[in-house]
Each structure stands twice: as C-alpha cells, then as structure tokens.
Design brief:
The chain is built from 15 helices and 10 strands. The chain is α/β, with parallel strands linked by helices. The strands form 2 sheets. It has a 5-stranded parallel beta sheet, with helices on both faces. A 5-stranded parallel beta sheet has the order 7-6-8-9-10, sandwiched between helices. The longest helix has 22 residues. The protein is globular and about 55 Å long. The termini are far apart.
Length: 353
C-alpha cells in the first residue's frame, strides 16, 4: 500500500474491515438502543441523507423493507426540509433515520430540526459521529470510522452495515445476524480481490472515458455510490442506473470506451446476463460482481465472485467496493490526488444558516 497520491484515501479504504469488526464488538449496545426505539409502533420509516448518505438511505430503505412489514423509503434531506408535509402526513407515526458521517452537515440539521417539530415524529440517527445525539432522539454508531479523507469510503460501508444490522434485528433474524461475525474476514479478502480487479481494468483499458454502474434492489443505492466515487476521486464521467433501465435510452452512449459494472442481484441474474451480452455487442467493457456470476454471466469480460454465501442485503456493504477502487485508480491514471478532491469538503456547511 505504498502510494504517492491519494495515500490517505487508499489507507482508509483498507480500514473497512476494522470498522465492521468495531461494530460487531458493540452489537449489544446497538441492539439495546434498537429495542428501545422499536418498542414503539411506527406507520413508516424514512431514511434520509445528502450525497453519499442519500445513496446509503436508498439501500437502507430497501434492506429494511426486505425483512420488515413497516413501509420504508429514502428521501434526501433537502426534500424533507422544504416539503415535510409531503413526506410526513398528519396522524401517522413516523421514524426518521438521518444518515451522516458528520453531525454538523447543515442540510441534515435543518431537515431534522424541522421534522422533529411535527407531532408523532421521532428520529434515530445512523452515524459515525456521536455528536448526532445532540439533535436526535437516539442514535446507533460506527465507533471506529473517523475519516481524515474528504472522500467517504469506510464510513459509507460501515453505515450500510449498521442499517443491515438494524433491519435484521428488528425483524428478529437471529441466524442472519450471527452470520455477520465473519464479516470482517470477508471484507479483508474482498478488499484485496476488488483492488486487484480495479487496477487490472484501468491498466488494460486506458481508453475508458465513461463508467456505468448498474444495480437493482438494494444494489441500486450502492450503484449510485460507485458512480459518485468515480466522479469525486477520478473526476470521471460516471453514471448509475437500475440495471434494466439502461436499455431505455442511456445505452446509446455505449462504445469501446465504456465500462459497464453490474452489481448482480440474485433475483435479476438472468436478465443482467442478457444485458451484459447486449452491451458487449456494442463494444462495451463489461464486469459482473456478485454470487455465482462466473457461471451465470459468462459473457462478462471480468468477474468477481463475492464468495460469502450471503443474500443481497448482507452483501450490500461489500459489493460496492469496486467503485472506491475504480475511483482511486482512475485518479492515479490521471495524476489526480484523491486526498484533495476538487471543490469538496468533508461536510457541506452553509454559512447563511
């Protein structure tokens, strides 16, 4: 891991296994908090965030809905702030779950302060910053995920992991929760494998200038985050779509300079395989990541087997590592220092608020 540019970001990418282990070590406290919060009945859950945390909210809402009967959705903080009555209807008891790396992001504070003024609303933060307790009713914490880099890497995956723990615990999925004991070991293995794959792709295809990430279900939010990492770190033209939406117009851009990464969901494997075969015929460079992709998607130019034996919900924090490493190697190819991304800071703080 001896790198010149982006050394801080690269090291923090490799810190993700330690973040998962730290969460596992604090599971009793997390579960105690969840038991208190969910001792009440809610009509709806709203996961909210900005930027990376919005994509995290998209994945979290889907995972929660996979295992629980309470309706859940993702809404960005600005929408929740400007139009609270669109999302929080009178007479409905709503739990708002702000997701944030830093407690002082202005739009998060604005949104939560506003919705907490409404009757029948409570908040449960999913966070890497214990100061989130200052403006929420409760919080669950990734305890060892403080990032010095501007780019969110281990904070994203650790909060996806927290949301998965939350969803499984509320649903009473004891066996699935116990299976997460092996998560740090799976992460260490996949970090190395994904690093090797991303480095190989960028080295073998220096002509690439458009990067597409595709995913369905809980993988859609992860696909959005992959897109975001390549933009932030590599200043690259990157896009994300629901997999089968890609045929509806966007595929007109595909040529030999296009990389298409499919985060292959177990429920969509057959359709994803057909899509990648079609994209190959247009000259695109295709990648399949998931469980069983080598056999199910033989036409992909590159494969990465997760090999964890998890369902999609439990795989969500791991399958998107490719976006972080592609962003890193695109930046390296261009001579960009991802430790100092253009125009960005760790948290968006609006001085006029």
């Amino acid at each position: 891991m001896e790198k010149k540019n982006s050394a801080l970001t690269y090291a923090e990418i490799y810190g993700q296994a330690d973040s998962f282990a730290a969460i596992n070590a604090t599971l009793p406290a997390i579960q105690e908090t969840l038991d208190k919060v969910f001792s009440e009945q809610y009509d709806e859950l709203i996961f909210t965030g900005c930027g990376t945390s919005l994509y995290l909210a998209q994945t979290s809402a889907h995972i929660f809905s996979e295992f629980n009967d309470i309706p859940a959705r993702a809404v960005c903080c600005s929408e929740l702030y400007f139009f609270p009555r669109v999302y929080v209807k009178p007479g409905r008891k709503v739990l708002i779950l702000p997701i944030t790396r830093k407690s002082y992001t202005t739009e998060v504070r604005m949104a939560i302060d506003k919705v907490r003024s409404l009757p029948e609303v409570k908040t449960l933060a999913i966070t890497c910053d214990a100061d989130s307790r200052l403006y929420n009713d409760a919080y669950i914490l990734s305890p060892e995920t403080v990032e010095d880099s501007v780019i969110m890497t281990r904070s994203f995956t650790s909060m996806v992991y927290l949301a998965t723990v939350l969803s499984l615990h509320v649903a009473g999925k004891k066996a699935e929760l116990e299976s997460l004991a092996a998560y740090p070991d799976h992460a260490r293995r996949l970090l190395k494998a994904t690093d090797d794959l991303a480095r190989t792709i960028v080295a073998e295809h220096p002509e690439l200038n458009l990067y597409i990430t595709l995913g369905q279900g809980e993988y859609y939010g992860v696909a959005n985050e992959c897109m975001n990492k390549m933009k932030e770190m590599g200043i690259a033209n990157s896009e994300a779509y629901f997999s089968l939406e890609y045929r509806h117009g966007p595929m007109s851009l595909v040529d030999e300079n296009t990389l298409l990464v499919t985060l292959a969901h177990p429920e969509t494997m057959k359709e994803d395989a057909a899509l990648l075969t079609q994209m190959n015929s247009y000259g695109g460079v295709t990648v399949a990541i998931g469980e069983g992709v080598t056999e199910a998607m033989p036409d992909a130019a590159y494969h990465l087997e997760l090999g964890c034996g998890y369902d999609a919900a439990r795989s969500a924090a791991l399958i998107g590592l490719i976006g972080q490493f592609l962003g890193y190697y695109i930046a390296e190819k261009k001579g960009i220092d991802a430790d100092n991304p253009r125009h960005l800071t760790q948290a968006i703080v609006l001085n006029d608020k």
